[in-house]
Amino acid sequence: MSLLLQEGTIGNVTLKNRIVMPPMCMYHADKDGHPNAFHVLHYGSKALGGVGLIIVEATAVESRGRISENDLGIWSDEHIASHRTLTAICHDNGAKIAVQLAHAGRKCECDSEFPVAPSAIAFSTEAPYRIPLMLTLEEIEGIKDSFVRAALRAKEAGYDMVEIHGAHGYLLCEFLSPLSNQRTDRYGGTLENRCRLLVEVTQAVKEAINLPVIVRISAEEWMKEGWNIEDSIALSKALKTAGADVIHVSAGGNQAVTQTQPPIVPLYQAEYAKRIRQEGSIPTIAVGLITTPAEGEALLIGGVCDFVAYGRSLLRNPNLALAAAKEFHETDKIPASFRRGF
Ligand SMILES: Cc1cc2nc3c(=O)[nH]c(=O)nc-3n(C[C@H](O)[C@H](O)[C@H](O)COP(=O)(O)O)c2cc1C
User: Fold this and answer.
1) Ligand 1, CB within 6 Å, residue ranges
2) pTM
3) Total domains, the chain
4) What is the mean pLDDT of the chain?
């Protein structure tokens, strides 16, 4: 039997297989941030296609935490009902579902909002980026509160778990890097100080919802003096202590121009997932140009990760998990209604 199609657990939640749909912004919401019929169909199709865990795209915990005016949101209690349509359709079709709780920080592109960040350093001098406002200590408390309230709403909406977005140069990631965070208070300076906000958010969310918590990080920002894999291993240990159940290991996104980025070849980020799993002693989700069931299977056999995320592959083929069942001669895992198609 393949490992990819075997059950896996995150915290106390059992997934029917190890195939994960990673968060992917669809920019398909109205300005109010509510999921709509498009989202129900989009996520529902991946549930029907056999994905074990669906992670809903970056969903803003504050309206100024959106990347665009068309992001999903969960910044008010009014969002709970519309998110319930997503959890219901996925549960009805056998998938578990998480939501990625996000704050865009200095990468907020909304005309109607002003970006905030650890320091007043722009992501880029080019439009649409602006020099962000530096958060005060009091405002940082407010950010933590926004994540906790959003997580409580996610629980109420029926999500099985949440993912905290600490990757790709968005707010929590900006705090990690000495290049984007030049604060001199307890949220800047040393590695421990720069990690503090993400660790505190993780701990507060875990305590509030008592559901499994995934934390997505960028293992490297690919700059000579920047955030790197050694820092990520140290952070992952702290996140584990704070209550994180699994680290979703991505990379990049905090710099408009990088210095040491490797070529984007198949499995190019997998080595980071392996090191965090082994040296941080915490389960990982690997992601990044993993496109075939055989590649995912090899990563699991090789001890690189515990779960495998297929992003763009699932946009191309929502039935990737069913195709894997066919490929691994486990057609009993294809729902009877579809079996004749395989
Ligand atoms: C259309 C699109 C939207 C994305 N949006 C998000 C997002 O909301 N949050 C996030 O953490 N990553 C996002 N990503 C990154 C993906 O989750 C994933 O890490 C990336 O596509 C690499 O995996 P892949 O090669 O399997 O596609 C996005 C990627 C794509 C293609």
Assistant:
1) 22-25, 57-58, 100, 165, 167-168, 216, 250, 287-290, 310-313
2) 0.98
3) 1
4) 98
